[in-house]
Amino acid sequence: MSFKNIAGQPQAVGMLQGSVKSGKVSHAYLFTGIKGVGKTSCAISLAQALNCEEEGQDGCGRCPVCHKIEALSFPDLRILGPEGPARIITIDKIRSLRREIHLRPVEGKYKVFVISDADRMREQGANALLKVLEEPPEESVLILTTSHPHFLPPTILSRCQRVNFRSLNTEEIVAILQLKLDISEEKAAFVAGLSEGSPGRAFSLLEWGLEERSEILNWLKGQHLDIEEIFSRAQEASKVREKLSWFIEVVLTWHRDLFMIKTGSLKLVNEDYTEAIRNTAAGISMTKLKGVLKFILQAQQWVELNANSRLVLEVILLRLQQPVGGRT
Fold it and tell me: Residue 53 — very low, low, confident or very high, per pLDDT cuts 50/70/90?
């Protein structure tokens, strides 16, 4: 995957290509931006550019090295990230990285290490990584990706060259979807509007998210789950953290739309549910709606901080079952 395949990130790509061309490659980069905008793909592209046999500012995509990196089978490329139910980057992984990063490249010019969702390191792991950043080896490049740089220690942030990845606009995401998929412009625009600037999220929505969204919104419209159904739904949804995050986000957009209707705005996220949102908003007090919004935002933070996903979802579902009427 060469840099030319990274859509919508000309500034980030240009900065990295300039570094490769000038030979002034940083020993450590921090790629920041929302999930699904191409941070990890761009890290792989940088690995190609640094090791390509044709020695340019981009990977050729044709040589054996580029093919191996594309297939993630290159011995001098290693990608690690969170694992296990807690979704953390273990200290053992960081210790292994520390041992490997000082070894000479096996096949390429540079060893490239990518730590995805680097904010998932615990304090002990961050301290171990700091020792690498304090004495970086010349033939290795470390790339950290994160959507939450504020969760990383300042000591790590200060030792990495930051590369920001922007959120894409609706038109750009529509163009990407139509280029890669056989999809109508109308559907692409609808999905792009829900993707919040993330092409990766747009593809996830088309794969499974739209169906999940409809189920969640239909439940919110009626709120008819009984206690057994609540615990059953929580057990199922908590198995995949991405789906839990999506559940919370859909719930948040629904209540945000209720708030917008009550304040006189017609700019809704869930425009296809406008009538249901109007009907629901008519029976909810602004005071209690603000309380629910505050609770949902708190639940999002619980998930980011690796709280027990099933417990979080059970609490959300039980909280939303409580009456929120009263028209003030």
Answer: very high
Span 222-249, pLDDT tens digits: 766 566 666 666 666 656 667 777 888 8
Contact 111, 101 (CB under 8 A): yes
Q: What value, to the nearest 5°, has the Cα angle with vertex 231 and ends 215 and 224?
A: 50
Report yes or no on 40 lying in a domain.
yes
> What DSSP character marks residue 85?
T
pTM (predicted TM-score): 0.82
| CA distance linking residue 19 with residue 50, whole number of Å | 10
CATH of residue 316's domain is: 1.20.272
Residue 116, domain member (yes or no)? yes
The H-assigned helical ranges of 181-285 are: 185-194, 199-204, 210-222, 227-237, 241-262, 274-281
With H, G, I as helix, E, B as strand and everything else as coil, classify residue 263: coil
Question: Quick one: pLDDT band at residue 300, thresholds 50, 70, 90?
Answer: confident
CA dist., res. 283 & res. 3, Å (int): 52
User: What pairs with residue 121 in β-bridges?
Assistant: 89
Q: Domain range holding 274?
A: 205-321
**Residue 58 · residue 17 · CB < 8 Å:** yes
The last residue of a domain, from among 112, 137, 164 = 164
Residue 102 in tokens: 């000082």
Question: Does 304 have pLDDT greater than 80?
Answer: no
Q: How many domains does the chain have?
A: 2
Burial class (CB in 10 A: 0-12, 13-18, 19+), 263: exposed
Among 324, 325, 185, 313, residue whose Cα is nearest residue 250: 313
Got the DSSP string for 52-73?
A: -TT-SSS--S-SHHHHHHHTT-
3-state helix, strand, coil in the chain (%, to 5): 60, 10, 35
